[in-house]
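During the first year of the project, the team set up a workflow for recording each protein of interest as an amino acid sequence followed immediately by a discrete structure-token representation. This format lets reviewers and collaborators read both layers of information side by side without switching files. As required by the reporting guidelines, we include two representative entries from the current panel. The first entry is reproduced here exactly as it appears in our internal archive.
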Amino acid sequence: METRSQTEVWLIGQGSMALSGHTLPSKKQVLQTFFYHKKDNNIRQSATIVTQQVLIIWNKARIPTKQPYHVVAHVEKLFDKYCKLKKNKGRDSLTQHNNEQAFIEEIEQLFDIAHENAMTSITLEEDRQFLQMQRDSMKGYMGALDTELAQKEERITERKAAVFQRQVKESERKSEADETVELVESDTDDNDEDGNDDMKNSGAFCPSKKVKTCPPEGKKKVINPEVCSVLDRLKIPNHSGSLLVSTVAHGLGIDLEACSTSYESVRRARLENRQQVALEVKSSFNPTVPLTVHWDGKLLPDLTGRDTVDRLPILVTGYGIEKLLAAPKLDSGTGEQMSSATIAALNDWSIPAERIAAICFDTTSSYTGIHVGACTLLEQELGKTVLYLACRHHVHEIVLSHVYKTCFGTSSGPEIKLFERFRNEWSKFQHDSWLTEDIDPSIYGDLITKAVQFAQKALLHPS
């Protein structure tokens, strides 16, 4: 069981599960809540949780705020500043003491996430004064309920509901009118004509018959799989695709009223086609040769924001086979995350463990760690030993570093001047005329033959 002194955060105090109070939160309160959730989450997740709580309080105060992703970045920036200060907390210097005192005073201030135009966009003068007081000295409190404003909003809601009801009734009335047509009997029978004439002559009123029309037949689907594939291949958005299909159909003399070419129809058809194509590709992928699994984490821009995310492209190759299985987004680049994502991709494509003969990877510790490396965990999940094919680029770097160390000794810095000059002068070399050194293969004995035989045996008989 932890004591309060063990759970207390330096300069921050005890953590807090949630923000509370009738004032806008200070930077210290935000950090206290952030550190509480950081025990079970990473930095981004903790910042997101705090952001949600902060926005609830600011929305209660009816003050326009920044976008949530800006608030998350604001929390992370505050945490980063704290970490830089904590790094030097052991220094007993005047500068460090001054920095700590300045930080303590700063975190007592408002965690300001108001929109840059908040003071001009706020309609109530009381709200403007409240925000200014919070910025100046964190004074002022929010009441439990603004009765006058609540009554005003209730009246606005009632008016909107009444307008909506009138619109619904008008829409229903128009629908009923569209479903009915007036038909006047015009039979060619002489007796009927005489009867009608008699009624007209007598001044009697002849009501018209109202008959409900039959429901229209289903519209034709012109967005077939071939059209969807072309739109995807050319990267045409759904709005543009709808306009393009409608224009082509009209040019071919097809009645657009009988076709389904709306934006939603195009979007739905493209989604269905992608799902169908994906199912067909997965069902038809049934390799009968030993496979090598390749993966390598990459930092790529996120699809729904400006941040970068860690993605793990996963491929399998074999004799005449090269298939990209997935490129999942990872929370972190740990060996456990990469191993789990690779196993999930193999299971999704129904690739049995017996088919996996080798794995290809680079030589970072997250891959090659003896206990929690991705290679080790992957072998445990597969229940077998596989052939390791480390990236040739990284292996050559290791070999060259040992060659340099043997010939010139240990380097005194991260950059080796010899290689740096070689790189800078690379463009001046004649790349089409090289002289290679002739090496007698006999000096290696039968090592080459044994290595080739071992690799062939491991690939042809993976089990």
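The second entry, processed by the same pipeline in the following quarter, appears below.
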Amino acid sequence: METSVKDILTRLSGVAHRGGAFNSDVLMAIAEVLPSGDLKTLETGCGKSTIMFSNLALKHYVFAYDDRQSEGSSVLMVQNDKEFRQDRTIFVYGPTQQTLRSFLFTDDDMFDVILIDGPHGYPFPDLEYALLYDKLKVDGILIIDDVHIPSIGKMYDVLREDRMYEEIGVFSTTGLLRRTAIEGVPNDGDHWYEQSYNYSRFPLAMDKYHTDRTVALNRQINLADPASLEKYAIKSIERSPKEAAAQTTDIGATLEFNVTESAGKHFTLEIQYKSIYEDACRDAVVLVGGVTTPLPYSSGWSKLEIMIERPASGRVIVTFVHPSAIPEHDRETKRYEFRRLGSLLRSIAIRSEGSGHDSQSQSRWKSGGMSGLIAKLFRKARH
């Protein structure tokens, strides 16, 4: 007698692999709303859902990275399971960003269920959807996993309002939509104005794209002040929960200033900082005005001064690069924290020539923007 899907998922409760795993209760809830009959299904990614679909569908396609040589392999977890139906499953190995584009679907390849759960970084879930949506049958189910990730949640928000779908609901962090018989926007045109998400919000206010970042020369900006941080921080800089300061939270973190005053040919940027982790400061630099300046490790508050030519536009962009910073949840496994912490920033000031604060920067050299050394540092950070 065949084991029921519910029994299989109950047995697999608590089982995980290198890519994480669906909650068995969520998969049971999903199984209850899937169409009945001879199903043809497809998923990106691989895991307990693959075992489930191999028992529910006559044919199941799996587009997944081949991790069989890795510890905690999700593919091997599936293929070695006693109830996995290999005879019903077709694996297409490789990055889905590439395999979905090159795979030769036939005109008969229409699916009752499509699960999008491959790479989660933007724009890849959107790309998976764009390559698969027209292969979903009317009354078929589109499953989008991990809608708690902001960029994926935004995609789900767009689709749940689209006339092509009716929303079934969100199970934990997995969204389900049913394809309606209503025609969507044509795939050979534009028609953005026929999509509910767009016309119900059009036009967006442009204020957030035109923030006033004017700064007075010789004024020290307190980066612990929320108003200053909101005004000058562009990306990857947040208030520190532990100190009266801001903290960088990614490999590249950026502040921007608009200096309207004209004084001399040079500015000196004065930064008060200290390091969060010593290893995160390995090869750390500050990029500003075409100058690349080392950011040395400092366990206590230090001052870094960088002399730059006054930009004709008055726009000063300061980027803190920490290529060796690692996600903090790799350090503190009790917290699910993705931020790559590098430095604390207490204040910043742009000094004019003759203000009495000008000096040569500590250990600076010229660089061609993001090429050369910085490109090398970013390549290093990815490995």
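For the second entry, the following points were noted during internal review. The chain is about 20% helix and 30% strand. Residues 216 and 259 are 7 Å apart (CA to CA). Both points are flagged for discussion at the upcoming steering committee meeting.
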